[in-house]
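Quick check before the chapter quiz. The format below is the same one you will see on the exam, so make sure you can read both the input and the output lines.
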Amino acid sequence: MANSWRLLHTPPSRGAWNMAVDEAILEHIQRGESQPTLRLYAWQPACLSLGRAQPFKDVDVERLTSQGWEVVRRVTGGRAILHIDELTYSVTGSAEEPMLAGGVLESYNHLAQALLYAVRELGLPVEMKEHARGTGSKILNPVCFEVPSTYEITVAGKKLIGSAQARKKEGVLQHGSLPLTGDLTRICEALIFKDEASREQAAQRLLARATTVESVLGVETDWETAAQAFVRGFEAQLGIHFQRGEMSRSESERAEELIKEKYANPAWTERI
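Here is the expected output.
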């Protein structure tokens, strides 16, 4: 089928493995060895992910380590996200794939429609902001969920899903996070601030600008329920037929190489 995609559910894993798997799948798609893929996953232990061009000096390594958290650098842009108590999705496919064609904004819009459908399935009164609300503190702000973006999914003006995309010669990778529960301000424990007053101010700004599924609904939504809603959203909104699959041996082997070469390597993580 022309619109048949692979659906992957991978177990909660370390940040370096999660990022390596996304890239390994992208490489295999470029060689025609893998189908377009929606992967749904989680992180264990919690992990701070930095955008591709984000300075490593934003990270408070001592505090991060004391919490038992890890750090990884994404291939996608944007700012820092603390991956904890969330559903993470990644979409990988060729740039000729109808849902991913046409450049960043067009493909972002296509995928945002599916995400919008998914979170409405969970009962959230979400809307999509089609234009960024100015640039303000975008450059200096280390926290992803404080930064507005085009086709942002919000509830009562608060950001709900943070997504980022990379378009490479191998194809397109977009991944993003849906915070399910917990205290969003925990990320402020992993980042450098000039003083504790600044840390507290950042935490309060974050609570004013972002939210979780549980905060909106008043009840906890488990990972599996959210994952099923994502699948329904992609199928209904994008006309995709999913086949539940597994990673190929070649993808798994390449992911292990990428962990050593890149994602668990300070030369990549701390490169800027």
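If your answer matched, good. Residues 132-139 have pLDDT under 50 and may be disordered.
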